[in-house]
């Protein structure tokens, strides 16, 4: 387990924060924390080789109003999927080599699909009319069932080089919690850069300032049990310039926002012959791991049996044999009585 990485960051107003039993936290200043000098070098370090198993990095968000309130996020970072790996290449080739008959539906599949279409149409036509209160009650019941089945939601944020930032959040969290998690994972030099999370296709942007998403949980946004999002960095909003007439009475202007190359953040290209790296903290980049391959559903692959399965099959064969012997004895007994 990695040491917790504590960042004094502003927690959104409706973000959940729970007291931590750890050591006494340091008070958070109201102003944004200055960038650490140790991580502000311009030369990118050598890229860490992916590990076989993922390592979890803990990100801690501390409320500026009450330092005793904090929230821990567990993050993992996965390297881009390699097309040259033997496992992925073999899996892709096996699906490409499937015959055309595999994609032709059978008669039973067509009958099943036709029956399901008829049942769905009858349900839409013959179902009773519901009031808004009954619909809301049914929706709440479905959400409770879904929350009991999937109490946590797995979120993966995809960067320009197809690398993934993964986090597991409670399904009752809101969109502001997700933005806080991603912001803590970013490098301190780019945390002031606004970003938006979106899905495509169709392109749907989930902005935390959008009133349509205000108060909605990850379950309400159909992110449960898991979803994948893209990230796009946008130009920082510059404060409006003050006129000379009001400059004498107005407070001093805020520090200018440092310039940011958005193309370098949104596109995985570099001109200095160095490998592009996502703008994440160094601890996550050092904990990079290979993304586990999904299970294979190739019907031509033989099923791998385990010793437990063989034992279960042998037990089933013994039960069938005992039943057959019992029927034979009963048949002989009844035949002898008839004679």
What does this molecule look like?
- The protein is an alpha+beta fold and 339 residues long.
- The chain has a domain at 1-30 and 44-81 and 133-238 and 259-291: Phosphatidylinositol 3-kinase Catalytic Subunit, Chain A, domain 1 (Ubiquitin-like (UB roll)).
- 30% of the residues lie in helices and 15% in strands.
- It contains seven helices and nine strands; from the N terminus they run ββββαααββαβββααα.
- It has helices at residues 86-96, 107-126, 132-149, 175-185, 262-266, 282-286, 307-338, and strands spanning 5-7, 18-19, 57-62, 69-78, 152-158, 164-170, 195-199, 204-206, 226-233.
- Mean pLDDT is 76; it is low at 1-30, 32-44 and 245-251.
Please provide a brief summary of the model.
With 339 residues, the chain is of the alpha+beta class. It has helices at residues 86-96, 107-126, 132-149, 175-185, 262-266, 282-286, 307-338; strands at residues 5-7, 18-19, 57-62, 69-78, 152-158, 164-170, 195-199, 204-206, 226-233.
List the defining traits of the structure above.
single chain; alpha+beta; 339 residues; extended; Ubiquitin-like (UB roll); 7 helices
Name of the CATH first level of the domain at 1-30 and 44-81 and 133-238 and 259-291: Alpha Beta
Beta-strand percentage? 15-25%
CATH architecture of the domain at 1-30 and 44-81 and 133-238 and 259-291: Roll
Largest sheet report? 9 strands, mixed
Query: In percent, how helical is the residue content?
Result: 25-40%
Order of helices and strands: EEEEHHHEEHEEEHHH
Anisotropy-based shape: extended
Count of DSSP helices?
7
Number of strands: 9
How far apart, in Å, are the first and last alpha carbons?
79 Å
Structural class assignment: alpha+beta
CATH H-tier superfamily of the domain at 1-30 and 44-81 and 133-238 and 259-291: Phosphatidylinositol 3-kinase Catalytic Subunit, Chain A, domain 1
């Amino acid at each position: 387990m990695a040491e917790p990485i504590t960042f004094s960051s502003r927690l959104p107003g409706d973000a959940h924060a729970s007291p931590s039993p750890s050591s006494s936290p340091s008070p958070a200043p109201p102003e944004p924390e200055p960038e650490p000098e140790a991580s502000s070098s311009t030369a990118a370090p050598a890229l860490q080789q992916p590990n076989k198993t993922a390592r979890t990095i803990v990100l801690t968000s501390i409320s500026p109003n009450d330092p005793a309130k904090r929230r821990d996020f567990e993050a993992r970072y996965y390297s881009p999927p390699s097309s040259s790996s033997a496992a992925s290449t073999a899996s892709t080739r096996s699906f490409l080599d499937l015959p055309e008959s595999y994609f032709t539906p059978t008669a039973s599949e067509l009958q099943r699909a036709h029956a399901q279409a008829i049942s769905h149409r009858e349900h839409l036509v013959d179902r009773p009319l519901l009031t808004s209160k009954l619909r809301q009650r049914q929706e709440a019941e479905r959400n409770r069932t879904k929350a009991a089945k999937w109490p946590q939601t797995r979120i993966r944020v995809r960067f320009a080089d197809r690398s993934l930032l993964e986090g597991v959040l409670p399904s009752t969290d809101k969109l502001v919690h997700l933005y806080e998690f991603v912001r803590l994972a970013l490098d301190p030099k780019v945390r002031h850069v606004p970003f938006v999370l979106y899905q495509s296709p169709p392109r749907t942007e989930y902005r935390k300032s959008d009133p349509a998403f205000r108060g909605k949980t990850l379950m309400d946004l159909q992110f449960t049990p898991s979803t994948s999002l893209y990230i796009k960095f946008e130009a920082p909003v510059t404060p409006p310039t003050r006129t000379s007439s009001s400059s004498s009475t107005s407070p001093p202007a805020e520090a200018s926002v440092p310039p940011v190359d958005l193309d370098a953040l949104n596109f995985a290209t570099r001109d200095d012959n160095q490998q592009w790296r996502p703008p994440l903290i160094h601890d996550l980049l050092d904990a990079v791991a290979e993304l586990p391959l999904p299970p294979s559903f190739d019907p031509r692959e033989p099923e791998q049996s385990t010793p437990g399965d063989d034992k279960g099959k042998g037990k089933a064969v013994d039960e069938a044999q005992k039943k057959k012997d019992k029927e034979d004895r009963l048949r002989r007994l009844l035949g002898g009585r008839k004679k």
